[in-house]
Amino acid sequence: MQVGVGREPRAGERRVAATPETVQQLAALGLNLLVESGAGSEAGFADAAYKEAGATVISELPIAGLDVLLHVRPLSPQTAARLQPGAVTIGLASPASELPTVHALAAGGITSFALELLPRISRAQSMDALSSQALVTGYRAVLEAAVRYPRFFPLYMTAAGTIAPARVLVLGAGVAGLQAIGTAKRLGARVAANDIRAASADEVASMGGSFINLDLDAAAEGSGGYARDLGEDRAHRQRTLLAPHVAAADVLITTAAIPGRPAPVLVTADMLAGMRAGSVVVDLAAESGGNVEGVVAGRDIQVPVDGGTVTLVGLQDAASAMPTDASRLFARNVSNFLALITDSGTVVPDFDDDVVAGTCLTHAGAVRHAPTAAALGKDA
User: What is the secondary structure of 62-80 as a DSSP string?
Assistant: First the structure.
């Protein structure tokens, strides 16, 4: 079967869905790999390395002739429409914000797998692209904040006086949040964190942070181990209880996301107005609507406060800023999932497998992810 890996067409995307290492893994399964020339160049993987690994490097990927298409970012509706019926796609799909593409995939009879939908179970950990990319983005978020923050992160005691450490607050203690906590701590900041899942307290402590328990008295863990959306009354209470902690922070990093749905708003404009001048806010959820009111993905916004401004950063393409390691991790997630659905050189998804069924977005003309199907119905 022909498996294709192309250049990512979206501006700013430097990752690639396969590396020479994963090409070797997939070739060993009996699959034929076609790699578009230059697909891995921005991530540091040359065409020659793909050839040596066993792939065929071609100038333009024959989309209409592929059996499987591997990708990083969501496909465009035009690309989805060019695929042959029965073709399989594997990658990030952002179904909540890419409804036209989902419609095109279903209409074309494409079997698409959205790695955001992968169930959070131990057997699927090696395929968990959200976690692997969150590791990169959590690290990068702290570096972006440190560059913009007009003071040091660590404590310094000098002959000219003592410089207090920066106070960093991280909202959301998933993989990205925990990585942000650990990175900020290594830079010398004083770090606190909050997550609506009380069970995260031990994980926060293990990374060197102090856990802020808001005692929301609500079951906060949804299916698959992800945080679930709180009701509006509890969400309002959460923001009220968070407000003094936000005001005390020098750097705020928000990481809360719910796969397949818009990000929850954790910080309002009034809460931002209570922060000190010079503070920095980095919103990792900006591309899915944002945790911070007024954030714009890909932009720095100066928010007026008493005495100056707060810098609000809508972080975009964070993983792409570190494309080599991000691609190594992502490509391994993709190849592990493809190996799961491949038997003797043929891709044959077993929908009795919870991992396969849970990750499937479209199949045989239908949208199998219920929230996306419902959204498409409302959009029609």
Answer: -GGG-SEEE-SSPPPHHHH
